[in-house]
Amino acid sequence: MTDPDFTALRTSAVHKLAAAGCFDRAPWAREAVLTIKRERFVPHDIWVWAGSGYRAVSCPADPQAWAAAVYDPVKAVVTQIDDGEHDPRTTTGTVCGAATSSVSALDIVCIKLGFLGLEAGHKVLDVGAGSGVNTALLEERAGPGNVVTIEVDQGLAEQAERNLRAAGYTARVVCGDGEKGFAEEALYDRLICTAAARRIPRAWREQVRPGGIILTPYGSLFSSSGLLRLAVGPDGAAEGRFVHTASYMWLRAHRAPGGRPPRDGEERLSASPADPDKVLDGDWHADFAIGQLVPGLTMQRTTGAGDHRILLWDGADSFASVCCDGWDEGDSVLEQGPRSLWGEVLTARSWWDEHGRPEITRFGLTVTAGGEHHTWLDAPENRLPRGRT
Ligand SMILES: C[S@@+](CC[C@H](N)C(=O)[O-])C[C@H]1O[C@@H](n2cnc3c(N)ncnc32)[C@H](O)[C@@H]1O
Fold first, then answer.
1. Ligand 1 proximal residues by C-beta, below 6 Å
2. CA distances from 34 to 12, 31, 71, 169 (A)
3. What is the pLDDT of residues 31-64, one digit of tens each?
4. What is the 3 state secondary structure string of 297-316?
5. Do 52 and 78 sit in the same domain of this protein?
6. Count of structural domains, the chain
7. Structure confidence at residue 387 (pLDDT)
8. Which of 26, 74, 232, 235 is the most buried (most CB within 10 A)?
9. Which residues are catalytic?
10. Pick from 168, 107, 99: which is nearest to 130 by CA?
């Protein structure tokens, strides 16, 4: 078997990224991606999605498949499942679990660099080091000594440090909770996060200089799909727009609480006034809006023999089960708890339809100096109605 031609794979990936416009806002990133040998950062044992679970792929055993995954321009390389509970070197078959670390896909990495507005000499805090390959990209632009990266997982932090040093980069690698930032080297001109947030940590606003930028995936448990670009104000408030879609794994403390809905209290039965599959049709932009409009919402779809249901939970004491077949019958919606979750979802979807089905990029967020979060449409004064219906 011949060895993979990494130079050819890298060049081909860069051509595809350029054709897709991924370097348009940060032309410097093209050279940086060509410079960095991504194959030296990605672990030799990775996870590849195999339809119903993850399958381990090893570089020594299948170098071509491994190399293709490393240089796939549009797919992340999953490097850890369930915080490292499964070892890809000893796993046979597929594993069902949640990806907890990855090397982000090159397309969204380059798009994010474009929105970060990174200049030579900028001081940058990079939250979520993973393998360290993005940290290397940041250092290519900001320069040696200007990048700090923080990773919560000790094994990953050590690996990132080894990878960066072996490739000649100087970035400081800190093992810790990125939500606390890294005060010792503040103030930063830029903060970039590679995990999704549901609220903006106070430390980020405190450690980025006024006029500096925070760029992070941001969303709700229902939909983690927006890339948020906030400018920090002189009083520590921060404001900005969602500039792109972005789907990332959560910052550790922002993951879904887990557990099961309590299913306590009186059961209320009703018909649904609209087809549930049309209300929750998978449109990213609709889901983003619904997630912002209905606090705490999580959803699960279940499919049994002739029974296709949507289960909704607010993480507290409200629950709804919506039967998709026969949705207009009087017992198709079952709700429990103080909130009418299906009612809230219907209202949120109508709001989105009535406002012209706005895309994510029409939304923005204001975080006040006191830490209140307000999502808005088009302009900060148009706050989203948030709360119970
Ligand atoms: C999608 S990976 C990104 C890795 C790398 N930056 C990249 O883009 O290739 C997200 C990383 O964030 C880390 N992470 C999650 N929560 C964190 C936290 N609170 N502080 C620091 N790192 C965190 C995870 O362990 C994971 O390695």
1. 101-104, 127-131, 133-134, 150-153, 156, 177-179, 194-195, 248-249, 251-252
2. 10, 5, 11, 16
3. 999 999 999 999 999 999 998 899 999 999 999 9
4. CEEEEEEECCEEEEEEECCC
5. yes
6. 3
7. 53
8. 232
9. 104
10. 99
**Both 126 and 215 in a single domain?**
yes
In a domain, 153, yes or no: yes
The pair of three-digit structure tokens given for residue 198, joined into one six-digit string? 């549901």
Ligand 1 atom with least separation from CA of 83: 25
How confident is the model over 160-198, as pLDDT tens digits?
A: 999 999 999 999 999 999 999 999 999 999 999 999 999
Q: Which domain holds residue 227?
A: 106-252+367-377
Indicate if 86 and 166 belong to the same structural domain: no
Same domain? 115 vs 231:
yes
Position 260 in a domain: no
Three-state SS for 38? helix
Q: Which two tokens stand for residue 322?
A: 């919506």
* HSE, side-chain direction, 13 A CA sphere, residue 116: 34
Atom of ligand 1 nearest to the CA of 253: 19
Do 189 and 67 have their domain in common? no
Q: How close is the Cα of 259 to the center of ligand 1, in Å?
A: 24
Domain membership of residue 1 (yes or no) is no
Start-end of H helices in the chain: 6-19, 28-35, 63-70, 106-116, 133-142, 154-166, 202-207, 276-279, 284-293, 341-354
273-309 pLDDT tens trace: 999 999 999 999 999 999 999 989 999 888 877 789 9
Residue 207 lies in a domain: yes
- Residue type at 166? A
For 68, counting Cβ atoms within 10 Å of its Cβ (0-12 exposed, 13-18 middle, 19+ buried), the class is middle
Residue with tokens 């599959």: 277
Listed in sequence order, the residues at least 6 apart from 62 whose beta carbon sits closer than 8 Å to its beta carbon are: none
Closest ligand 1 atom, residue 177 Cα? 20
Same domain, 156 and 177: yes
